[in-house]
Design a protein that fits this description.
Strand content: 15-25%
Shape: globular
Radius of gyration: 18 Å
Strand order of the largest sheet: 3-2-1-4-5-7-6
Number of strands: 7
Structural class: alpha/beta
Distance between the termini: 22 Å
Order of helices and strands: HEHEHEHEHEHHEHHE
Bound molecules: S-adenosylmethionine
Length: about 230
């Protein structure tokens, strides 16, 4: 197997839960790829019901607006649980991964897909630094958001939670197109900075942004590498 889709087409997905689903991009990938599924629930701390339900149609599709930590206290059961590009958004991620066991049915799988922070090309490093700046700005606005983890850190969370890896798909994206300039991700960091400091950013924050903008122009920005792991509780 070389890609998540190779696994999905072998899997009867049963009841599917996509945690921190956002607008449903990853849930869409699951429902398109799984051999079958019984129902799909998207969960996000922000109410993205409309976007999620617009993206995934069907009778057995639902959205829950909740923090995952609160949801885990309820009585639920899922066969396929996913978390995509959100481990670095979850405070207490180790505890959350451990406690997911409560809502995983026997033979359930947990699919983790996360961009990672090691072995980056120079343009990927620009992306990581801009993302880390956005994360710091979000923290300043009261939102939990961390810089991306290394593969060792991600694997460490899983091992600590009692999750064994059944299949690993590592996409380095080291040939991804390089975007040079400040229109794309660098511009997004600028917008977040403007939101965080409507009356003007402090000099150290502005200086960091100018440094990263110059890097985005000279070296460019590229899509980060992605680690996707299909796991089960031991
Ligand atoms: C980068 S987005 C990932 C969205 C989607 N999974 C994807 O791959 O496109 C991170 C999401 O995590 C959500 N989030 C952050 N903390 C959360 C929490 N404690 N419980 C549930 N969702 C959370 C955010 O609202 C956001 O939609």
């Amino acid at each position: 197997m070389t890609a998540l889709e190779d696994f999905l087409r072998t899997r009867a997905g049963g009841a599917v839960l996509d945690i921190a689903c956002g607008g449903g991009a990853f849930a869409r990938r699951l429902v398109d790829g799984l051999a079958s599924y019984r129902g799909v629930t998207g969960l996000d701390i922000v109410d993205k019901r409309e976007e999620f339900l617009g993206n995934i149609e069907g009778d057995d599709v639902s959205f829950v607006a909740s923090a995952i930590g609160d949801y885990l206290r309820g009585d639920h059961g899922f066969d396929t649980i996913s978390i995509s590009n959100a481990l670095h958004h979850l405070e207490g991620v180790g505890d959350i991964l451990r406690d997911l066991r409560r809502i995983a049915n026997p033979n359930g799988v947990v699919i983790i897909s996360e961009m990672y922070a090691d072995d980056l090309t120079p343009p990927q490093q620009t992306q990581r630094d801009l993302h880390a700046m956005i994360a710091r700005l979000h923290v300043g606005m009261g939102e939990y958001h961390r810089a991306t983890y290394t593969r060792d850190e991600i694997n460490g969370f899983l091992a600590g939670a009692g999750l064994g890896v059944l299949h690993a798909f590592d996409a380095p994206h080291d040939d991804a197109p390089v975007e040079k300039g400040t229109d794309g991700f660098a511009g997004r960091a600028g917008s977040v900075m403007a939101d965080a400091y409507p009356d003007g950013a402090p000099p150290d924050v502005s200086a960091e942004y100018e440094r990263l903008k110059a890097r985005a122009i000279a070296i460019g920005v590229a899509r980060p590498p992605q680690l996707t792991l299909v796991c089960a509780y031991r």
